[in-house]
Amino acid sequence: MIPFTYARAANTADAVVHGSAVGTKYIGGGTNLVDLMREGIEHPQALVDVSGLSRDINETADGGLLIGAGVKNTALAEHRLVRTRFPVLSRAIVAGASGQIRNMATVGGNLLQRTRCTYFYDDTGARCNKREPGQGCDAVDGFNRIHAILGASPACVATHPSDMCVALAALDAVVHLEGAGGKRTLPFNELHRLPEGRPDIETLLEPGELITAVELPAQPMAAHSTYRKVRDRASYAFALVSVAAALEVDGGMIRDVRLALGGVAHKPWRAWKAEEVLRGQPASQQLFQAAAEAELANATPLRDNGFKIELAKRTIIAVLGDLSGVSA
Ligand SMILES: Cc1cc2nc3c(=O)[nH]c(=O)nc-3n(C[C@H](O)[C@H](O)[C@H](O)COP(=O)(O)OP(=O)(O)OC[C@H]3O[C@@H](n4cnc5c(N)ncnc54)[C@H](O)[C@@H]3O)c2cc1C
Ligand code: SF4
């Protein structure tokens, strides 16, 4: 047992003051952090509980939503405006974890949950650069069926585990932050890093910076959106591959599209290349295939996960077919 202190933040300013101290971590629902502490992967000296802060979902002036970081995953998925304006987000959330975990988990914690790489969790001898920089990575030549096919590096081939984050990547969300240096915002697609040589640095957050909210800009197209998750079991399993998509089709032409992939990279993967192929073109199965091929052109399989490349392509094509009504 490693001792640590626990304090409940009274407000955001109080959280930031205490959260900036060395060795301190914020805790939301604790559904990931407490597991990591039990496993000896994380050992904070102090926890600042922020689960009671920022628990509102408010409509913004332009018809978007400002979602407090303390909003529980269940409350977000169930919210009427989320279900009607951003169904991809509701679907992504309920595709994750279990009802009990979603009742505890917060938006802020979901964004910063850590990888499910089995070697990362195994501190009994497995080498892991994310746990201990410079140690090496046993997944690269090990059992790597669940690992990354895009954007990986020789230092780390882990994937980001969140379903919610895949939807947020597609929706051009904006993250609101507050830290010792004041308030700022960050495009969601810039929050998480690719591993490069430092997989232990997972985001562009400054030390002690608190996520206070996530903003969804108004996007009429998002009302026509969906999420599909492919996994080993029908529930309670992380994505092998997932696709979040929103589509605007007019007279058979794709006017606009947002596409993101999960289970394939160290961060939620925005499918910019596929979007470029699709935008302004007549919807067809051939076009969907070309978009999927373009996105996966640089995919690199490891020993056990080559199947993910074809799986990702087929899932993209299926989701675009569903949303456009153009099937094979
Ligand atoms: C059995 C199991 C199955 C699961 N299956 C899935 C799944 O299929 N899909 C999926 O997406 N997820 C899944 N999860 C993960 C789950 O979604 C996360 O554990 C949860 O979202 C984390 O939220 P939390 O509030 O509990 O975070 P915590 O555990 O409290 O915190 C996680 C991290 O976020 C940091 N943090 C928390 N709040 C803030 C804040 N406001 N600002 C800055 N930092 C903050 C903490 O310091 C910590 O580093 C599963 C979890 C379990 C245990
Ligand atoms: S893939 Fe990343 S998280 Fe997994 S063992 Fe390698 S360095 Fe660690």
Q: Cα-atom Rg, whole angstroms?
A: 20 Å
Low-pLDDT parts are none
Which percent bin holds the helix content? 25-40%
**Assigned CATH superfamily of the domain at 222-324:** CO dehydrogenase flavoprotein, C-terminal domain
Structural class: alpha+beta
Number of strands: 12
Name the beta content range.
Answer: 15-25%
* CATH T-level fold name of the domain at 222-324: Enolase-like, domain 1
User: In what order do the strands lie side by side in the largest sheet?
Assistant: 4-5-8-6-7
Counted by DSSP, the helix tally is: 12
Report the biggest beta sheet as strand number plus sense, adding barrel if it closes. Answer: 5 strands, antiparallel
State the end-to-end distance.
Answer: 57 Å
Mean pLDDT: 97
User: What is the global morphology?
Assistant: globular
Task: Give the distinct bound molecules.
Answer: flavin-adenine dinucleotide, iron/sulfur cluster
Helix-strand pattern = EHEHEEEHHHHHHHEEEEEEEHHH
CATH class of the domain at 222-324: Alpha Beta
Organism: Tianweitania populi
Protein name: Oxidoreductase
GO molecular function, one term: oxidoreductase activity
Domain FAD-binding PCMH-type: 1-221
